[in-house]
Structure formats: structure tokens, C-alpha cells
Write a structure and sequence with these properties.
Elements (H helix, E strand, L loop, with lengths): L2 H21 L16 E10 L16 E10 L9 E2 L2 E8 L10 H9 L3 E6 L21 H16 L10 E11 L1 H11 L8 E7 L3 H8 L9 E6 L7 H9 L5 E6 L16 H17 L6 H10 L3 E5 L1
Helix pairs in contact: 1-5, 3-4, 4-5, 7-8
């Protein structure tokens, strides 16, 4: 690693080591998954990238491939009238968990987004998930592989949609793809959409939940101001990513961009579920659907959603 990159990474590490304390506990329940009129189907697929190895980690000797267990949620029948869908299929939305995170904690938001028409995929990264072999705390450096993990999963799901006989056959519109990253997953999503090393041009909308700009620069180099429409959101009571960090990230990117800092929300309750569903997660659902409907779908009252949040006292900025 070049000296300048090492210096940036050293600045980022205090943030990232703290993530283990907030993101490594097992969830105690998924909570209610919403009660919309759309029946949602859930699947888990093991997608294996044989072109890249999984590095050794503590007691884990490594593996010659990267296995990306991917949890899917999608409507049993494509809701063609939803803004997320058209005759070409529905938009694909890929979720990236944080340091010591899990795809199970996305169960509620995943189902809600599927009810809105999106094909939702949550990727379990090989070494930074809560059940990683060798333990996730020693594997933070594997984040450099995670943008490629997202691209591989997108490749595989598009191939499944293009195949006859697959449950995803004809379901995904390859021209409408979005990603969401939480915490270290936000670092991954920043690199996947704005770093010279890793940008996937297929991505048309990005949601960064408690993303860390300095960590993205530390691991991947400078981020580009230009990129897909991006929503930056976090909680006012986040002990890991303070509101000033989200405001800095918002200021570093060009329009279209939106910023929402939810009052009285912390690092996890506006995107994950531990027990009961927090009201912050319900607000995130409405915000993300409005944002995706605007930039990946056929409409969506994003301004109305943002105005509602501002009226409730949350920090809101929008530059279309």
C-alpha cells in the first residue's frame, strides 16, 4: 500500500474498529415485515466467484474462491404498475451490510422494498459478516474486495433473470440497478460508485447509510465528486458516524444528492432490526422508496417525502 494510502487508512481505522461494538451482536428477532398487498418471496443463494480467492483470516486458512451467500426478496408476481417495474422487469437493489453485520438484519427493509416492486438482494461478505471464519474483527482489510463482490452478485442475478426456468427469469431490468451500503457497507458502496478502482457504471442510484468518507478514501483512494444520484442518511445519535461526517460526505459529491439526518436515531436502528421495529426504520423505508422511485423508477414524490421529514424536525438537504 502506498504511503499516502496507508496514512488515509490509519485515520479511518479508529472509526472502523468501533464498528464491531455496534454491529457484532446477533439480532433477537426480525420484527414485523410490513403488511402490504404484495406477496413477497424470499430465497437464499450461494453465489461462488471462482476467479478470486478468500484470504486467510486468523485461524481460517483461506479458500480458492469467494462464496457470497445472497438473500433475496421479490414479489411473487411482478407488480408491473409499481414505479419500480416496467415491461422490461423491475429494478434491482443490492444491500451491503456493515462490519460484523448480517443479511438477516435486513429482513424487514428487504421485504418492504420488495412489496414496493424492487428485486432486493443482500450480500453476505465472506470475512466481514458476523459469522465470518476466523472472526470478522481481524478481517477489516477484506473490504477492498467487497466492491468486486457487489459487481459479481449483480452479474449473477442479471444472468438468472436472463435464464428461462429461474425464479428470477425476466424479473430484473438490467438498466435499473441501485445499491445501499450501511457503515462499512457504505464504504463499499462509495467505492463501487465513486472510486477509480471499482466503479460499476451499471449502478444508477446509491443510498449511503452511515457511510464513512474518510474510510473510503483510506482504502480506495480519492472519491469522485461525480457519480449516480446519491442519498446520504444517518442518525443524530450515531456514536460511530456523527452527523458532521454525513454532512461532509454530502458536501463532497455533486447533484443529484440528498441528505437526511434522523433525529434520535443511532448507528443501526434506521436500517437494521434488533427486536421491535424502530420508527426510524419506517421513515427510512418511505425515504428510500421515494428516492428509488425517483431515480430508478417511473416517478415518486421525493420532494414530498423530504418535506415531511423536515417538518418532523429532521435535518434535510436536497440538491436535484
Amino acid at each position: 500500500m502506498p504511503p499516502r494510502t496507508r496514512a488515509r487508512a490509519s485515520l479511518a481505522l479508529p472509526f472502523l474498529f468501533a464498528l464491531a461494538a455496534c454491529g457484532s451482536s446477533d439480532p433477537v428477532g426480525s420484527g414485523p415485515a410490513g403488511s402490504g398487498p404484495v406477496e413477497v418471496r424470499a430465497e437464499v443463494r450461494d453465489l461462488v466467484d471462482s476467479s478470486r480467492a478468500t484470504r486467510p483470516n486468523a485461524t481460517f486458512p483461506g479458500a480458492p474462491e469467494r462464496t457470497l451467500q445472497t438473500r433475496l426478496w421479490f414479489a411473487s408476481s411482478a407488480p408491473r404498475s409499481a414505479p419500480a417495474c416496467s415491461r422490461n422487469g423491475c429494478a434491482l437493489f443490492v444491500l451491503a451490510h456493515g462490519f460484523g453485520g448480517s443479511t438477516e438484519r435486513f429482513e424487514t427493509i428487504g421485504r418492504w422494498l420488495a412489496e414496493a416492486g424492487y428485486v432486493v438482494a443482500a450480500v453476505r461478505f465472506p470475512l466481514t459478516n458476523d459469522q465470518a471464519p476466523g472472526g470478522h474483527p481481524s478481517a477489516i482489510g477484506d473490504v477492498v474486495e467487497q466492491p468486486a463482490d457487489l459487481s459479481f452478485v449483480i452479474d449473477e442475478l442479471l444472468a438468472a433473470s436472463a435464464s428461462s426456468g429461474d425464479s428470477l427469469s425476466g424479473r430484473i431490468d438490467p438498466e435499473r440497478i441501485g445499491i445501499l451500503g450501511h457503515s462499512l457497507g457504505g464504504v463499499t458502496a462509495i467505492a463501487h460508485s465513486r472510486s477509480a478502482c471499482c466503479t460499476d457504471r451499471r449502478v444508477g442510484a446509491v443510498v449511503l447509510v452511515a457511510g464513512i468518507e474518510i474510510a473510503a478514501e483510506g482504502f480506495f483512494g480519492p472519491i469522485s465528486a461525480s457519480g449516480p444520484p446519491t442519498l446520504v442518511t444517518s442518525g443524530s445519535d450515531d456514536p460511530i458516524v456523527p452527523p458532521a461526517s454525513s454532512e461532509s460526505l454530502y458536501g463532497a459529491i455533486e447533484a443529484p444528492r440528498a441528505l437526511v439526518v434522523q433525529s434520535e436515531a443511532d448507528h443501526v436502528d434506521l436500517i437494521e432490526v434488533f427486536g421491535e421495529v424502530d420508527p426510524a426504520l419506517e421513515r427510512t423505508r418511505d425515504l428510500v422508496i421515494a428516492f428509488l422511485d425517483r431515480y430508478l423508477g417511473s416517478g415518486g414524490d421525493l420532494e414530498g417525502a423530504l418535506d415531511d421529514l423536515a417538518t418532523q424536525g429532521h435535518l434535510v438537504r436536497y440538491d436535484p
